Amino acid sequence: MTVDEALLDDPEALAAADHSGVLRTLATAGAQVREAAALSGEAGVTRLAEEHRPRAVVVASLGGSAVVSDILLALAGRACPVPVLVRRGGPLPAWVGPLDLVVAVSLSGRAAGPLALAAEAARRGARVVTVADEGSPLAQVGAGRGNVQVPLARGSRVEEGLRARSSRLSLWSLLVPVLSAADALGLVRTPPEVLAEVADRLDAEAEQCRPASEAFLNPAKTLALDLAGSVPVILADGDVAGAAAARAASMLARTARVPAVRGALPDDAGDVVATFGGPFATRPDDVFADPFLDDAGAAARLRLLLLRDAPTEPDAAPEVGPTAPAGAVVDAVAQTAADAGVRVSEVVPEPGPPLVRLAQLVARTDFAATYLALAGGIDPAASPHVADLRDRLG
């Protein structure tokens, strides 16, 4: 993949290349959080706390909205008082009934999977929470008696343009209502003060990664240049970073058209390091090769992208062996990569609540994927091949 590095340091050229305004849309993430939180309150999400806790929660989301359920699962963790299941489409599990809650998410409100699951849940008497465009079929299900329908934040509604066509760029408008509902039920801890901190962290990241910031000062532009011409292997060090890794892989594929594989510790460490000896690993004789100057036509090489969660005890002595914490395992993987000649990039968020740390990881990789697309002459807004697939599937 040939990239135009000069483009990244030319705000006017970037704006011209980004004719759909993807970078501007990413910069509104903090505003999306604030507006979605307000809309959730107005829709009555907090009244869920006044009712009985559900026996189980089923989350229906797919495509660009699938990361919503990934993030909820990561934040709920093993301590969640009720099971949380994810369904991309039907059928609804036979046991779902009046004691359960089904959460369905769709930007257009017309995605077949979430719509069918929500409608069937309502028919069985289960409580339903929907996040969808007002007036859509899914919103109509959520407007039923005893249910909750949260409309989209203003910038994500169908008549507002780009974000209406892309769930990728409306992540926070879709996610915040789901987390507000989960907080009301005591499944996760994402109260208003945490959401406010998330919005502030997203604003700060947008400022740091703004188009006018020069590449050597802009961490997202730097990461984009690191990933250019590579085969990214994304490794996360835990559940929070794992959800961010899923988002990063999706954004690289859908935004920059770059395939990426991802994994999370501890299970995937072996799979990742095994690739260091494969056909895409750097050969010993080209460890010092410059991928931008020496051979523009050379085959793509692995780039290990480590998404590391903020350390909670930076002064603690590291453990070793099979019970070592994630940080020690990541260090070992990084050293193995260095020994094999595989280049490594890292993204580490500043300390804060889990959702705040995740937000920074997501924002950094979102901006990086977009800069990578623009520098490579690719429209980050839409893929014609995805559009063709949708047309073929009807």
TrEMBL record:
One Pfam family named in its UniProt record: bact-PGI_C
GO terms assigned for molecular function: carbohydrate derivative binding; glucose-6-phosphate isomerase activity; mannose-6-phosphate isomerase activity
SIS domain location: 44-187
Isomerase as UniProt keyword: yes
Signal peptide: none
GO biological process: carbohydrate derivative metabolic process; carbohydrate metabolic process
UniProt keyword list: Isomerase
Family named by the database record: Belongs to the PGI/PMI family.
Entry protein name: Phosphoglucose isomerase-like protein
Classification lineage: Bacteria, Bacillati, Actinomycetota, Actinomycetes, Kineosporiales
